[in-house]
Every structure is written in structure tokens, then in C-alpha cells.
Write a structure and sequence with these properties.
globular, Isopropylmalate Dehydrogenase, eleven-stranded mixed beta sheet, 2 domains, homodimer
């Protein structure tokens, strides 16, 4: 039997609140019967939803909070009003207290990041937290980071992302020695990407165990799956992610228009409906729902605010896989190893030991 | 009859050289009988190809050069060895000399940009040249700039791109008052995008005629066609463009796999083959081939190096539309207006008049 995993949940997060969140937990439980849940939020609203899922209700602890963070609270606002007492804060705090293996919230990204930093603090050896996304590719799946937290990341921060992303790939994909590519643009003598050049130098110099530095990749390499991990600064990464989502929707629209354009194409689409169902599944954004916050002393997963129960369950699933593979300890060991490289070797070992 | 337009062509550029370039010119001539061509490159190789296209041959002037720039010459190398005497340089120089309305090269982007800057010089009031791409969207087509030349562009440079892109949209799409969006990421309090904030402030302050500032857009807005023009710094823009290309290929692959997965789906695909043909056309990257260099004293169009005759003809077509709509004069007037805003009004008018 798989070892029990406890998930802390912000039951009030997202566009739909407890109705979707509780349904999502129930769905995750179907696939992972070893799960236990701590649901933070309005106890009455949560109980009402739980009545629909008696099996889930038996593995849930409810922690009541009066306060929830809204989708358009600014991070600083959210922190001021919600610190210590909001469902979002409390769900993160359960991870800090060691009561939960990870937490999931569909609440607003900025607030969740601000609270996570404040509550869990940065991991030693990491400057800035980042958000990693699981990106479907022709070859399977890749990890792309950062997709929005580290605007203007410098070379050292980019190189550290490589280490974080590789640990996540080893836990999730799982691959023994994931390849790590640095997102760059083709031009050779272009100025202004000093951070990317510096990151390349550092990754070569550090030569971290548990990953293989692949070199530069370009935007079209993400979909090809050229490297298992793609590292980029948060602004470009967020734009890449959203642009890919937009392109997928656009092509979906073209496809629907084309298939509805004549009787013959409608008949063809009907005959091929099994194939289209399969395609829809492959492109289903719910299947890559879940941004993973890396670089903190604890695991926080951000679900898309507008997702449904299936999407929320996928976000939980990411955490289950990462907890099962002891991601946090892997990352702490890897980062400890890297950040000790500047000191003497003993220092590096000490740093990594003190984390375990 | 449409007024005659002369195109200067780097016949040696691209992966395939004169064979594709000359065939592309012939194809462009079919649609635009008013075209005249100056072909720069190895006279013997060009003549051999021209024998296949007698109609084209009658509107071509050949300017022989011994030297051509290779696809992997670095920009500085290319400039050193090719300045004054390579087919690439000479094709740009024909624009400078007023012999041609615009030039097209499928040669290497970095070299073409370096030579274009050196030969044509920056337009007054513009700091850095940019590359604009035509991006298909659900609503039609948008202009996205910059897709690779202006890594690290500052606020002023981004705002100027808005003006350049709007002029191009008015000439090409054509729309009287194009909307201009600034590409940004969702987070409100994220640091590091000061350039985007500054650009927003400047566009509001300048309030340029001939465009409407739309506000911020995100990556998925490009495919939706939320704004007619999307402005971004070169690194993120190049990554967005390549990521969209990669995503389109990836989905195409999924679609082919799905349609080939069973007898029924194959039959369905056969019946819907007309619809699929239409879809393929919509997604054909050749139809958006052609990066337009803006901000220089002359019009240079970069064709994709690996394209075929149809793709090369599309790149020529962009130039034809822009020349027909007097793009360069529009841009000079718009930029003159903007860059004159710091001075008194008369100064602005003088600056714009002196360009005409």
C-alpha cells in the first residue's frame, strides 16, 4: 500500500470556490486512495459540498476560516488582510507546520506567491521563487520554468532554475538524468541576453549531478520536447506559455470551422469522432493544470482559477507524484550542493546535510 | 494600371539560393504584373534559372556580384567581408540609391540587419530597428513587433514600435485606426517590467494620430487578435513567435496521428479532405513569411531562409502592399510627429517635412 499523503487545500480559492475544489478532491481520491485532506475555509460551505462525497468526507479534516482572498486582491493587500487567518494562508501554513505534504490553491497567483514566500521563506541557496509548468510536447512532457514569477531573472537565478527544474523532472516524468535547455533566440551576436549567457557558463561550471546541460533551445523546441527542462526568465516564460495556449485555441477554432464547413466534412468529422476525442484529450488544458512553486521551504501548487473538478484533481496529482518522489529533499540536496560550490567542499556538504 | 514597383532581390540568400528566389519572383509577378526586379548575385546562376521563366526575364535587371553571405556568417564577419560588394549589401544599396522601392533577402537575419543598419541608417527619431511579423489570428491578421532585433528595448523604444507597427497596419491590413496593445504578463505588482509601464505612459501621453492605444495584452491575446498591433521587446517577441510556430507544428502532428489511428478515422479524414486542405492553408507558415525591418531609411524584408518559391513570393507581396500604400512616408510622418513632441510644433512639422 502506498504511504499516506496529506494535502492541504485552500477550499475558497478559484472562480467557483468549494463546489469545484471539493469535487476535485473527491476525484483525486478515486485515483489515489492513500490521500488525506485538510480543507481550509468556510466550514459550513465545505460541509455542504462534502455531503455529496461521503468517501471523501471520511478522510477530510476541516479547518474553519472566516476570511478568504479574492481573485483580484493585490498581493500586498492580500498579505495585509489575510496573513495568519485567511484560507489561503492557513493552507500554506499547514505545510510549514509539517501537517501536510503540499498545498493546492486555485486562488490568485500573486497573492499565493506573496503568502508562500512570507510563510515558507526561501530555500537556502535560492534567491527567488519560480513557477514551473508541465508542458505537453511531441515527445511527452517537459518542465518549463519560470512562467511568471521571476521577471528579469539574472544568470545565477536562471542557472539555479535549471537545478530546480531538473529535480522536478526526475520526480515527475521520471527521468534519471533530465536534459536542461536554456531558452534563447537565434541571433548569435545580439546584445541584451547577458543573463542567458551567464547561466550557460554557470551550468557548465557547476556541472550539477542529476542533470545534463543541453545548451540553448528556441521557442519552437518547447513543443518538440528537445530538452526535458526549459529554463527562462519569468516575463518571456509567461508570454511563451500564454502564446502557446492562445495558438492551441486558435487552431482548435480553425479546426471546428473547417469541419463544419460542408456536409461532407461534417460526415467525415462524425466518422473520425473517436480520433477527435483523443485529440481533444491531448490538448485538454486541464491535463497540464498546476503551476508548481519551486525554491521555497515547502511545496505549493497553483491550480488555474477557472478550472473544473477534473483540472483541480490534476493539480493535486502533480503534488502526489512529487511528494511520493520526495521532491523537496531532492531539491534541497541539489541546491545545497550547488550553493556550496563557492565555499570549500565540506561547507557544501554541511549545507546540504543541515537540510535533511 | 497599378504604378510600377521595383523590387531589389538578394538572389543568393536563403538555403536554396537562386533556384527558389527566381521561382519566387516569377510567382510574385503572376499576381503583380506591375513588378520590376533587380536581381543581385552570380549572373550565370541567375541566368540559368531565368531561362525557365521568360516572362520574368523580360522585367529583370541582373547586377552581378562575386560574393555572397553564407547562412552562418556572423553579422560582424558579414559586414567586414560583404560591405559594398556582396549580393546582400548591393540589394539593400539599390533601395538607398532610390533604384528600388524595397528589397527582399532570404539570407541570414543578423547579417541582413547589420548591413541594413549600416547602409540605410536609422530613421530620424528611431533608436533601434525592429522586425515586424504578420501573425494570423482568429480575427484575421495582426502585426507583432519586435520579433528579435531589440533585445532589452526600453520604454521609449517600445512606444516608438507602437507608432511604427500602427503605420504598417494601416498600410497592410488595412485599418484606418489600428489598436495597439503592449504585451505584458498578468501579475499586477510584479517587478521588472518597468519598460512596459513606461511605454504605456508614453503612448497615452503622445496619443499618436493614426492609432488607438488598447492597453496591455497577454500572450493568448495574439492568437485571439485582441489588438491589431502587438508590441513587445525582441527577446520575448522572438520566443512568442517561435513558440507559436512550435505549437502549431505540435498540434498538426497530433492531428495527423489521430486521423491515422483507425480505419474509421482515416475514412473520416478522406471525406473531410477539403476541410483539411483549407485548414492546412490557414496554418501554412509560408503565408506569413516575411519579417519587415522597420525604423530604417528604406524598406527591407527578410524571407525565411528555408522557404520555397511560394513563401518567397509572399515575402515580396508584403513589400508590394507596403510600397503601394507608401509605408515609408507614413512612418516618417508619424515618427516625425512623435519625436517632435518634445520641441515646439513648428519643429515637428519641419522634421517631418524634411523627410518627404
Amino acid at each position: 500500500m502506498a504511504k499516506s499523503v496529506t494535502v492541504s487545500i485552500d477550499a475558497m480559492g478559484g472562480d467557483h470556490g468549494p463546489s469545484v475544489v471539493v469535487a476535485g478532491c473527491s476525484r483525486a481520491l478515486e485515483f489515489h486512495p492513500q490521500l488525506q485532506f485538510i480543507l481550509h475555509g468556510d466550514a459550513r460551505a465545505i460541509k455542504t459540498e462534502l455531503e455529496k462525497y461521503p468517501k471523501l468526507a471520511s478522510v477530510v479534516t476541516i479547518e474553519h476560516t472566516d476570511l478568504s482572498i479574492s481573485m483580484d486582491d493585490k498581493p500586498s493587500q492580500a498579505l495585509r488582510k489575510g496573513r495568519g487567518k485567511s484560507s489561503m494562508w492557513r493552507s500554506i501554513d499547514s505545510v510549514k507546520q509539517g501537517k501536510a505534504d503540499f498545498c493546492v490553491s486555485a486562488g490568485n497567483t500573486g497573492a499565493l506567491m506573496a503568502m508562500s514566500k512570507f510563510c515558507l521563506r526561501m530555500m537556502e541557496g535560492v534567491d527567488r521563487p519560480v513557477i514551473a509548468a508541465i508542458w505537453p510536447s511531441i515527445r511527452g512532457e517537459s518542465i518549463v520554468l519560470d512562467v511568471g514569477a521571476s521577471v528579469g531573472a539574472d544568470g545565477q537565478q536562471l542557472a539555479t532554475m535549471g537545478v530546480l527544474g531538473a529535480a522536478m523532472a526526475r520526480a515527475l516524468l521520471p527521468i534519471q538524468q533530465p536534459s536542461v535547455g536554456l531558452l534563447n533566440i537565434g541571433e548569435e551576436e545580439v546584445k541584451g541576453q547577458d543573463n542567458v549567457q551567464e547561466a550557460a557558463r554557470l551550468l557548465r561550471e557547476w556541472n550539477p549531478t542529476g542533470m545534463r546541460y543541453h545548451g540553448f533551445v528556441e521557442g519552437d523546441d518547447i513543443g518538440k520536447g528537445t530538452s526535458d527542462v526549459v529554463v527562462t526568465e519569468g516575463f518571456a516564460g509567461n508570454i511563451a506559455l500564454k502564446t502557446a495556449e492562445g495558438t492551441a485555441k486558435q487552431i482548435g477554432q480553425y479546426l471546428r470551422d473547417a469541419m463544419g464547413s460542408s456536409l461532407l466534412s461534417k460526415l467525415g468529422a462524425f466518422l473520425a469522432s473517436g480520433a477527435f476525442r483523443h485529440l481533444r484529450q491531448k490538448l485538454d488544458p486541464r491535463r497540464s493544470n498546476g503551476g508548481v512553486f519551486l525554491g521555497l521551504n515547502g511545496l505549493v501548487i497553483k491550480s488555474h482559477g477557472g478550472t473544473d473538478a477534473t483540472g483541480f484533481a490534476f493539480a493535486i496529482e502533480i503534488g502526489v507524484d512529487m511528494a511520493a518522489n520526495d521532491l523537496m529533499r531532492r531539491i534541497q540536496a541539489d541546491v545545497g550542493h550547488i550553493s556550496g560550490l563557492g565555499d570549500d567542499d565540506d561547507g557544501a556538504e554541511d549545507a546540504s546535510d543541515s537540510k535533511n
